[in-house]
Each structure stands twice: as structure tokens, then as C-alpha cells.
Amino acid sequence: MKILYAAIDQTVPGTLGGSTHVQAVAEGLAALGHEVHVAVRAGDAAVAGTVTWHDVRTPLGSPNLRLARRGALARLATTIAPDVVIERYHNFGGEGLLAARRVGARTVLEVNAPVVDYPGSPKRTLDRALIVEPMRRWREWQCRAADLIVTTDRAILPTDTPAAKVLETEWGADTGRFRPDASGPIPFAVDRAAPVAIFAGAFRAWHGVARLVDAMEVLHAQGAPWRAVLVGDGPERAPLEARVAAARLPTVTFTGALPYAVMPAALAAASAGVAPFEPDAHAPLRTGFYWSPLKVFEYMASGLPVVVPDLPRLRGILGGGDAGVLYDPTTPVGLADALTDLLDPSRRQGLGHAARARAEAHYSWAAHCRALDAAIRGLRERPRTATGAGPT
Hints:
The protein has helices spanning 17-31, 70-80, 95-103, 122-129, 134-145, 209-222, 237-247, 263-268, 294-301, 312-317, 334-340, 345-362, 365-378, and strands at residues 2-12, 35-42, 52-55, 84-88, 106-111, 148-151, 166-168, 196-200, 227-231, 252-256, 272-274, 306-309, 324-327. By secondary structure, the protein is of the alpha/beta class. It has 2 domains: 2-171 and 365-381, Rossmann fold (3-Layer(aba) Sandwich); 196-362, Glycogen Phosphorylase B (Rossmann fold). It has a 7-stranded parallel beta sheet with strand order 3-2-1-4-5-6-7, with helices on both faces. Strands 10-9-8-11-12-13 form a 6-stranded parallel beta sheet, sandwiched between helices.
């Protein structure tokens, strides 16, 4: 089938999770025999392979202005004549769904964030002030207009969304690239006598990287050999670097953001992967921990035991404690104690082997795309969604 994937607020190639997601899904569907076209913000480097990339970007780089490109998407869809249009959801999106309607294509809405309002949402307050609630009506129309919705958690969809049109699945990792034996330049010094706890991601409050620095202060005071390597950037980075410098904490290294091609070797050189999420620091997570965390899947694919707070979703991904250590996030030394539990190399190795096996079986992009492919092909056997002219 011909597939048009509309993700115009994402940059490909890029270093963020959204960039990785779009590229992996596009390439995974192409590997299954589909002709895949993707509308994105083109990055600085060309992407080789079997996918056709179209540079269609949002005005001023703002995802809130996506609908301003509905004409460009419609023209692209008319040229390509896709059988299916996949759109990456945004409250102010819908341009892919509208383009699909023009050419008679089936529609898939990929939902990575809550469609429903979380308690205390400023957007909800504004919507009510506008009387007719245009934002709620528009995003609910998007869900009605889609023939298929792909999401990590159906709880973030409107309650009247038919279960039959929802594919609930996790995202994934490139298990061919992220491997325990991945080779390449390692962007930090390696001392085999000192195990390395690695964090890779955004330096934002809800990613909890400050909690890893807390743990390293405790472990350093105890004389434990752990080192921490913090990969990434964001608003939390500068304050944390200043804090580490002031504390003269020699066991913490900041690499800054790294090219994605470097990450497999970086993870393979580490001893454990840490994802110290703090859901209370991110208001949308009040609806529940809906994230499908790419970093966790890439840690697992790299054969690393994973250290995460004990939250139901993360517990399920790790198979309980089979593939890592879950700690009590309400305990100040919970993360430090979890790393202490991993000082034994044989324990790390056993958990790492289990993590790799779970990633290969359940959390690869290939597995995700096979499920998506089956659901898309199944659309042929279902009646089209009746959507009307627009939100009601």
C-alpha cells in the first residue's frame, strides 16, 4: 500500500524521541513492503533508504500552527494518492486527516499524548471561557475521523472511542542497532573497575535526572564505585552542572546532547540504564503514566539492567523485577539503594540478558510495525468512519 505519514512538527533526522519514532515507524513499514512517504521538517542531513521524505514544516516551527499547512498536505496527498494517511496527533493538528478525506484514503491517528484534558489543564480553562469549547471539539473530531487510533494507553482517548478502532501498543527500540556488542566511539572515559549508570534523555523536571545526581551524592559519600554519565540537554542541565561543580562530585559526567548514531556504543559501554521519571512534576501525567519510554527500550535492547521508579506501567515493561530494579520513588535513598543492589556484576549480567530478551520479544520497532501493519491491512475489511463535515 501507499502510505503518507504526516508528522510535520518533527525533524528527521533528529535527536529527540519524536524524531526517532517517526523515522523508525516509516522505515519499519517500508521494510514490510509499503511505499512510504513522510511529511516532516527535514533535518540538516539527508536520510538514505527506501522512504521518501518531504520537507513540509510548520510555520515558525510551531506545532500550534500545523493546520496552516493543510493546503500543502492536501496537494501532497493528491500527488501521491495514498491508500492510508497516518497523522501524528496534536490538538492543533488534523491536516493529515483532512488531506486523507480529499483523496479518499483510510486514516490512522497516532496518539502519543492525552486527548482528554488533565485535571487543572489551562487549556481546559481557556476552552470553557470560549463557551463552545473549540479545542475539545476539534480534538474529539480527530478521534472520530480516524479509522484507526494507535496509542500506548486507551485511557488518554475520549471515553466514547470505540474499542474496535484502537490499537494499544508500546513504542520500541531498534534492536539491530542497540545491542550489547554495539561498537563505535565511546563519548566518555571507561574504567572497568567503576560501573557506569547512564541517563539518556531530556533534562526536564519530569525526567528526574536530578534524582540520579542525588543518588550519586549518596553513593559517593558511601564510597561506592558507581559513576554516572548524563547524556542530553534541556533546562535542567545548567543548574545540575553548577550543582555538581559546587559539590565537587567527581563521579558525574555530562556529555551534552550526542548524535543518535553514537548512542548504541554509549549504552553498550554502560553498566545500567537509569530512567528516574517523576510523574508528579508533569501535569499531563495526572491522567496516568501514558509514556512509552524509548530510553527504557533502548537500555533493554543494549542488554542493560534498567533502574526505574516502581510505577505500574514500568513494572509491566520490566516484567516485574526480571529485567531491572524498581525502586520506591517516595524514599529519598530509593534510587541509591537500587544501584547498590546492582554492584554485583553477575546480577547486572543476568538482568541485562533478560532485558535484551524482553526487548527482542516485545519492544522492538519491528514488532511495533508488524502490529501496525496488520491493523492497517485490517482496515480494508471494515467500513469507513463517518465523520461529518467537522467537529460537532
